[in-house]
Amino acid sequence: SSGINAEYGHCSEAALRLIKAGNTNKQITETIQKITEAYNSSPLEGMLSYEIKRYQTEGATDKQIVLNPSEAQKKEIKNMEFAVHEVYAMDVFVTTGSGKMKESNVSTTVHKRSDEMYSLKMKASRAFFSDVCNRFTMMPFTLRAFEDEKKAKMGLKECVTHELLHPYPVQQDSDGKPVAQFKYTVLVVPNGNIRINGGLFDPSLFKSEHKIEDKEVLALLAQSANRKAGGKKKKKKAKSAAEEAKSEAAAEN
What we know:
This protein is α+β, with helices and mostly antiparallel strands.
């Protein structure tokens, strides 16, 4: 619906503007909660965004962002501060339902290699797994990437059974309500941040019966998402860059 599209767009844009050196994950959680409440909906419970490293797609890190924490996550997720030269995978899931999540009956086509070792018995499985290792290394992949998808599925089964590959299950809202997702990768730099992928959100394309009233959120969304242009000044030390970003954030608020 247009309403949920408007909402997830505003949520993703708010998060983007807050992923700056000196800001915290708690600021993002609180801001997203304000936006979803204004639109009478919820972020999906428990969904994580996190810092990523080279060749690493999942967050084996304490630097995590959760938009709607479960009771366990409220105790486990640590408050943390963004720093210059970090990279984050931001995932925004918003629903008009309860926000509780359950696994869908729809079969997934996306998988990723694990660190497990096993000697595959079937020739088709060995050929498929070898292809996965050569083409995708440790990155996620979809079965659509294979020329013969039916043959790929034959090789996939044994790999999943023995946990050489982990599936990415399809999730849904427990009430069966629609869920909107917006995903992007953002680099934290001294003068703001850089979004390197993910589509742009144009609020003029969407209409909703609800609207945001919170002045702080409106002021945040009114800010430019582009990083500030660097002048011809000498490079500053990394330590002062984070302090400068903190001062700028305080001035804007």
